[in-house]
């Protein structure tokens, strides 16, 4: 028997002033996308912004549906659009912001499991880490240097 320890390393920024300028700009795009989310059932708005290696910025937000499984998270909305419109571009960075319309959200909100799996597909496909920054509406911002850091032991095509 062998015990295996898995660790993740994250960087926590106290506020926007500590972020690199390009990340501030990307997060501002995510915030703008969050404001346009369609979330009449959960009242939980999420925005995503993706920086591609060709300089393009793609945004997305959550889109809910009365048939709950038919909706789509902000991260997947943005990443699938990027893959559709810029199939050869690599994803460099992703900024995420989420907040409840019922009460202030100050805790950083990471991607859900389904979104982690979708982002992992692109990280494996491009064989380059994707930096992910996530926050609530305000407060601290967390940086993960890669999706693999948020989803250790991920499932990918190597298992098929």
Secondary structure elements and pairings:
Blueprint (H helix, E strand, L loop, with lengths): L9 E4 L7 H15 L8 E9 L4 E5 L12 H12 L5 E10 L12 H14 L4 E5 L5 E4 L2 H4 L10
Parallel strand pairs: 4-5
Antiparallel strand pairs: 1-6, 2-3, 2-4, 5-6
Helix pairs in contact: 2-3
Please tell me about this protein's structure.
This protein is an alpha+beta fold. The protein is 28% helix and 23% strand. Strand 5 (131-135) and strand 6 form a beta hairpin. Helix 2 (74-85) runs parallel beside helix 3. The two termini are 26 Å apart. The model has no long low-confidence stretch (mean pLDDT 96).
Average pLDDT value?
A: 96
Strand arrangement in the largest pleated sheet: 1-6-5-4-2-3
| Biggest sheet statistics | 6 strands, mixed
> How many distinct beta strands?
6
- Return Rg in Å: 16 Å
Class by SSE composition = alpha+beta
Tally of contiguous helical segments: 4
Shape: globular
């Amino acid at each position: 028997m062998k015990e295996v320890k898995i660790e993740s390393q994250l960087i926590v920024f106290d506020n926007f002033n500590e972020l690199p300028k390009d990340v501030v700009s990307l997060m501002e795009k995510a915030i703008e996308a969050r404001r346009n989310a369609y979330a009449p059932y959960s009242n939980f708005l999420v925005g995503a912004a993706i920086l591609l290696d060709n300089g393009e910025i793609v945004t997305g937000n959550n889109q809910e549906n009365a048939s709950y499984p038919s909706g789509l998270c902000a991260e997947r909305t943005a990443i699938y659009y990027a893959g559709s419109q810029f199939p050869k571009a690599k994803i460099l960075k992703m900024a995420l912001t989420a907040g409840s319309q019922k009460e202030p959200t100050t805790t950083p909100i990471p991607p859900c499991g389904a979104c982690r799996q979708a982002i992992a597909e692109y990280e494996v496909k491009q064989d380059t880490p994707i930096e992910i920054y996530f926050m609530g509406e305000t407060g601290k911002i967390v940086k993960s240097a890669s999706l693999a850091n948020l989803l250790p032991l991920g499932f990918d095509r190597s298992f098929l």
